[in-house]
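Practice record 12: protein with iron/sulfur cluster.
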Amino acid sequence: MEFNDIAILLTENCNARCKMCCDSRGLVKGKTLSIDELDIILHNIALCDEIKVIGITGGEPMLYPELIKHITDYDYRRKVSVTIKTNGFWGYDRSKAENFIKENRDKISFISLSYDGFHKEFIPVDSIKNIIEISAQYGINTDVVGCFLNDGIQPGDILNELGESGYYTKFCYQPVIQTGAAKLFDEGKLVKLLDTEKIEIRCIGVVNPDILINPYLKVFPCCSQVIENTILEFGNLSENTLSDIINRIKHNKIMFTLFTEGFRPFINFMKAREIPYPQDLASPCELCAFLFENDWFLKELSENGFYQNI
Ligand code: SF4
Ligand code: SF4
């Protein structure tokens, strides 16, 4: 298994306060990477040949254009593509947005825009439309990703709002995942698509394996919204190299089970011991959030000899 993608969580700060945010990032003044910390990350990426794509995420990364420029201008000594995940607030001024996109058309390969009923409270749809249309003009692909409850604004409403600009982008929608601020939603409002009794629950990270580095230089094995709220942290770039951490992830027994067999062995383990677990899920990642919120499950596995040397 190769980790070709890495996401840099540039900042925890955000200018929105979406009610479904995985960490209610907008509610706090959080940590942003310094240039020195960013250099540690970029130096490690330059040394790690398997990484081909850097995804810049947050919080809202476009609050820090100088850090984005530092990433796009860095000399990796090979071809590395850069993508950005943003709430699109910067698209309100069409000429400024055009300047940014034009300047970066050879440096940024993809822009992923978050827009749904939650983002709509803070970001005008015209900002999103402007970015989609200008990106299409300069050959940068985009998508719009939204999260939904079973009441209120629905995916079709957002497509209607996008109007003609919807033809130039990809629209991806998913149920709200119950993590971070979204834990406050009434259970009845959540769309639960996966029944653990009826279908095989697989790790979605295997489709496109990606590593996450957060502003504290902590490294996680995927970019799921839940992952920072788990103990699945495999090292810190202030102490370890990225290559060593990636090797640790590849050779970790828990991750190996998740990547190769999915959750079935863990579900069977819990069933055999009558350990209650969530039956209906919005995403497989909710099972990771349940199993690895702290070390209770590792202790169960260890006490029952699931792995010999866990
Ligand atoms: S979901 Fe995204 S845009 Fe909304 S508060 Fe969280 S980080 Fe900001
Ligand atoms: S299932 Fe777990 S390991 Fe896989 S992508 Fe989701 S949180 Fe990450």
